[in-house]
Amino acid sequence: MEQSKFRLKEYEWHLIGLAAILVFLIGVIGFRSAGRGLLDAMYLSIQLFVLQSGDVVPLVNNYLQLARFAAPLITAYATIKSVVGLFQKNLGLMFLKNHIVICGLSNKSLILLRDVLSKKMKVVLIEPGSDQHSLLNLRTEGTIWINEHPADITALRKASVKKAKAVFLLNDSDELNIEIVTNIYNLFGSGLTDKRVLCYVQIYQPLIEEIFKSHQIFLQPNDMLDSRIVNVYKRGSEILINEYPLISKDFSEDKKQLKIMMLGFGKTGKSILIQAALLHHYSYQTKLLVTVIDKNAQKEINSFRNDYPSIYELIELDYEETEIEKLTINNFRTYLSSWNYESIFICLTNDVLSYSLVKQIGQLRSGSNIFVAFQRNSNLTQLISEGELLKRINTVKYFNIYEKTCLYDQLVNEEIEKIAEIIHQKYVESETQRGITKEQNKTLVDWDNLPHELKEANRQQAFHIKLKLNSFGYDLVPVNHPPQAIDPAKDKELLEKMAKAEHIRWMDEKLLNGWRYAPGEKNLLLKTHPDIIPYEELDEEAKEKDRQTIKNLPDLLKLSGKKIIKNTVNL
């Protein structure tokens, strides 16, 4: 019944148009039957819709009788529908608050839109006319659609962004997203607001992100606009590595060196490689061995090196520049016989080609984990992921970057945000107990006043807690889970290993974000820090900070409803 109503609503204007044409034709027949010529009958029939020709003949036949009543009724219905629709939209916008605003409709924001609608949240979409709107029937589903450019400040004002719960900018163009958030920032500066509004801005290119973070939008954290940079590809790769850990649960070899293959080296492939390299480096303290196969391998690798100059501290990379669609099963037999690849990541934009590669590699039964990272949400993607092939090859893991990432809970990520805030609070408490003042350490401020980059550093620490524990044979479960909680820090040898791993993780994150070593005090502006050195070279005070990070884990996790247990899988 609901589906029938939905389809009727979707085609309502089409039905009104068809009814108008039918009544027009009946009117023509009526006037012709009354002796009028064809053109005259057509003209008079049109006038029926505005009550101007119904009484021009002495004898009204049945056709004309029907037409002269039906035509003005259709006109009245269409007029009322338009006026009511406009009134409802403007009235709805006027009283909106705690709603979601989506600026621009892309493949990413379309998935987010469907997700927030499924949560029964109020949504405003700012997007100029698009065929996708008729397919989704957004108004019927509960979306208020503003048919204007998403960067238009008038449209942003109409959308009541200052009263919103969150604003999302997930367009494919970094430049467009920056233009929109700049206009939102200016809008917030034009008047007071009584609530903090979250604004999630998709930025992919590291250079643009670096430039953007120097803007007042991020340098003035007290603003009621809380802007946060999101990278769907980075977030997606974090989820992938978290769901399917690259590192086995039994952490028995300290200096193990794994090798992975990347088939395709675009945005997804690069993001996955960064997360895999970070995890591998602090887990095994060796460089991850990587083979990249892409038709533009050298160009993409040069771009990757320019974006992340320090990446070669974490990886050893070789590549083959070839057209992937021309690879045969014999090529893969050669690759896999020359090295035992721990994982093979297929990161292509062509779903059919991805499927073909899975078939070929799967036939070799190499034992390598195969990760297929789809980027689109098409019927073909769904057929591939649900098909029998992926079920038969048990080493294949299907992962849709957009579907997994472009969801409200994943983008907002309240759990990680909560843990990150607690991490910062404990840091402030620890430094204060040591007698350090705000004048000596500018970062000893509350969470809301902390600069964006330092917030992100705390979020990264929070995210890697589970991965780090996994690599040492531990796991996280809810506090009401039956096994007794364990504190790894009670084992001094293990505490030292985990503290070293934490330091390596912290240092690698700093290096990837453009920081470097320099003696003296850390400098946020120049991005220098005296502790960007090997763990063994740190003084005891610096080492104790890393140890304290591990010691804080049980209490920190308890506050977020989690506890640490020994992982019994694969032991």
Task: Give the DSSP E fraction (strand runs of 2 or more residues).
Answer: 5-15%
Instruction: Give the tally of structural domains.
Output: 4
Q: Number of DSSP helices?
A: 25
CATH architecture of the largest domain: 3-Layer(aba) Sandwich
> Which whole number gives the mean pLDDT?
84
Distance between the termini: 54 Å
Overall 3D shape: elongated
For the biggest sheet, the summary is: 6 strands, parallel
CATH superfamily of the largest domain: NAD(P)-binding Rossmann-like Domain
Helix fraction bin? 40-55%
Structural category is alpha/beta
Q: Kindly identify the CATH topology of the largest domain.
A: Rossmann fold
Oligomerization status of the protein chains: single chain
Question: Can you tell me about this structure?
Answer:
This protein has 571 residues and is of the alpha/beta class. The protein folds into four domains: 2-89; 96-230, 3-Layer(aba) Sandwich (Rossmann fold); 236-405, NAD(P)-binding Rossmann-like Domain (Rossmann fold, 3-Layer(aba) Sandwich); 413-566, Globin-like. It has 25 helices and 16 strands. It has a six-stranded parallel sheet, sandwiched between helices. Strands 9-8-7-10-11-12 form a six-stranded parallel sheet, with helices on both faces. The protein has a two-stranded antiparallel ribbon with strand order 13-16. It starts with a helix and ends in a 5-residue tail after the last strand. Residues 1-6 have low confidence and may be disordered.
